[in-house]
Amino acid sequence: MDIEVNEIYRNMSIEDLVQRLKDSEANLEESKLKTEYFANLSHELKTPLNIILGSMQLIELHMLNGRIQDSEKILEKYMNNMKQNALRLLRLINNIIDLTKIDANELYIEFHNYDIVDIVKNVVKSIESYARIKSVNIKFVSEIESQVIACDADKIERILLNLLSNALKFTNENGNIDITIKTEDKQICIYVEDDGVGIHEEKLKTIFKRFRKVDKSFTRNRQGSGIGLSIVKSLVEMHNGTISAESEYGRGSRFIVQLPLTTVDEHNNVNLYSQFQDEILMRVRVEFSDL
Fold first, then answer.
1. pTM of the predicted protein model
2. How far, CA to CA in Å, does 162 sit from each of 96, 187, 230, 262?
3. What is the CATH number for 76?
4. Confidence of residue 100 (pLDDT cuts 50, 70, 90)
5. Pairing verdict, β 137-142 and 187-194
6. 130 and 68 assigned to the same domain
7. Which residues, listed in sequence order, are joined to residue 248 by a DSSP beta bridge?
8. Is residue 243 situated within a structural domain?
9. Which of 47-51, 216-220, 232-236 has the lowest mean pLDDT?
C-alpha cells in the first residue's frame, strides 16, 4: 500500500503537489469555519429561547402570587422580550430554510416588472424608525425619477433589509447611512454606505462566503449567524446581478448592488409595489429583531 501511494506522488508534478496541499488547507479551513458556524448558531438559537423561557417563568411567578394586576408594566416588559426574541428565532429559521433551498436549487425568483426606485424608497422609509432609535441619520437619494426593471420584489426587499440591518448594526450613534440609486452602464446601481466601524481588509475578501462573520464577538448590538450576506449574494446573482463591498476599517463601508436593466413581457407593464406594504412591516420587524 505504501509503495502504491509513493508511486502516485512520484508521478505527480510539483505544481500538482502544491495544488493538493492548497486544496487540503482550504478544506481544513472550511471545516474549521463550519465548526465555528454551528457553535455560533447554537448560541444564537439558545439565547432567545432562554430569554423566552425565563420571561414565561417570571410571568408564571407573578400569576401564582396573584400580582398580575399590580405588575402590568413588568409583564408588558416580559411580553415584549418574548416577542422580540421570537422574531430573532424566526429570522434565524428563515435564513436556514433559505440557505437549504439555495443549496437544493429550490429557491425561485418570480420576475415581474416593478419600479425599482419605488421599492428602494419604500424599504428605506420602513426602517427610518429603527434609525431614529439608534440616533443614526439615514438619507435616500435617487438620481433617477423612476426605472422599471424585471425583479422579484420580495427578494429585492430581503437584499435591502439585510444590507440596511448590517449598516445599522455597525454604525455608531449620530452616524450616517446613505442609500443611493442610479443607472450606470445599462445597469441599476444601488449603494448602501455608512460611516460606521468598517471592515478589516482581510475580512472584506470573504464576507460573502458561507459561514463567514465580519465580527465574531457576541456583543448585543453586533450579533449574527454569519449566513446573511451569503444569502444576499445568492439572491442578487439569481437576478443576474452582482454585489461588491468597499471598506476602510474605522471609516465605514459601502455595498454596491448592480442589477440589469431588463423587463419581462406581461399583461401589466408595471406592478404596484404598494400592495406589499402590510407585509413589509412584519419583515422589517423580523430582519431588525437583533438590533
1. 0.79
2. 15, 21, 11, 24
3. 1.10.287.130
4. confident
5. unpaired
6. no
7. 252
8. yes
9. 216-220
